[in-house]
Amino acid sequence: RYALTVALIAGLVSAQILRVPLKKHKNNAANSTRLKEVTVDEQALISLARGYKDGFISVQLDLSPEGRSVDPSGSFASQQHVDADVQLHNNKDVYYYGPISIGTPPQHFEVVYDSGSDDLWVPSSQCGMFDLPCWQSNKYESRVSTTYTKAGHVFDITYGSGYVFGYTSRDVITIGNVSIKNQIFGEVVDQPSSTFVDTMFDGILGLGTPLSPSREGGSTVLQSMVEQGVISSRVFCVYLNKNSSADTNAEVTFGGCLDNLHQGTFSFAPLIFTDRWMVAVTSIDGTYKDQPGLSLPNLNMAALIDSGTTLILLPKDVYSLITAWMYKTGVITKQGLVNCSTTDNLPTISFTIGGQAYPLQGSDYIIQLDDSSGAKVCALGLTYWSINWAILGDVFMRRYYTMFDGDNMQIGFATAV
Q: Which residues of this protein are catalytic (predicted)?
């Protein structure tokens, strides 16, 4: 394991950058399958499907779908030179996670910083004796915290392969040296599925939109940061390293983005729902040398931009069209495998969002796995599921530095360095 950093920008113009060490988890085939389900809040997302018909979205906000380009240094906090505290060797990552502390004195936890969900939860010291994920993790003990207060609401969150169940409490949450007072969070007492077994993190810190409804009955962490003046704008940015040779560290910054982590300017797309970081993918295109290309126009496919999901998840019909075209080019097998030596010589797949095309090269969307014998296997970082919208996870976000702009209800992308 190696260390990353999460930076918090507490202000718009002359903010001090605070760093929290993050860590990464090595990839294998079993983990890759499981992690695509880790942070999908199934109940909340199924409710979004009510706005769909035959795969087309119903736009919920009165915002122009046209892309907008801005110079983020003119509107958001930025800093040209940031110390790279720890070098990241980021090949074969499955998920990114980092520390927070809860209570007084602080109790330390590792959590996934997750744009695909809303709530903060960690295992409770009151979890059952047969709750294996709990006993593999750090556990919150309310009795030893002088700032603990009881909230008492029962909550549960359903994920793709299971759920977590518990009750709510309030305490001081510390990220770096920034503290959020009286923050509501979940103490999980039951994790009956295998989703969280043998993971390197304890819980999840949801970073949903400022209008995301907390299941826990209070303000989310992001909402509380603004309400308590910890940050001056409802903006956070996510940068994920691509590989072990990268000179910069993965970072989450609150209050603005960092100029040295992207090339060019950001292009923006409006959210299609106020309570999810979802945008419309209007088309997908593919090109490969002089062979016939792929064209999927007029998709109007909703996509959740999710830092807590490893892969790109697509509706099955869309995935089938892409992989059938790639198979015809002769670069992948029917199982979606490729020769690891050819990752730089694969088709380009481009997603159009907000009028702007975002191409992915083979080196972006191919992931390297270890099979049961320890041999290296290269496979598509795309998969499918049975729902008519997509998730653009870490495979996409490693290529594009992402700004989650809750002030203007939009998401911006810029080419990551």
A: 114, 306
Contact 313, 383 (CB under 8 A): yes
- Tens-place pLDDT, residues 339-391: 888 888 899 999 999 999 999 999 999 988 777 788 888 999 999 999 999 99
Same-domain status, 358 and 409: yes
Q: Which residues are known catalytic residues?
A: 114, 306
| Cβ count near 264 (within 10 Å) | 9
Alpha-carbon span 268 to 160, nearest angstrom: 29
The two structure tokens encoding residue 187: 């103490």
Do 266 and 406 lie in a common domain?
yes
CA angle 197, 175, 308 (to 5 degrees): 40
402 sits in which H/E element: strand 400-405
- Is 310 in the same domain as 220? no
* Domain CATH number, residue 175: 2.40.70.10
Whether residue 239 contacts residue 251, with contact meaning beta carbons closer than 8 Å, is answered with yes
Residue with tokens 């970082």: 381
| Total domains, the chain | 2
Report the predicted TM-score, pTM, of the whole model to 2 decimal places: 0.81
Instruction: Say whether 28 sits in a helix, a strand or coil.
Output: coil
Give the number of other CB atoms < 10 A from CB of residue 340: 12
pLDDT at 128: 75
Residue type at 356? Q
Burial code (b: 16+ CB inside 10 Å, e: under 16) for 146-176 equals: eebeebeeebebbbbbbbbbbbbbbbbbbbb
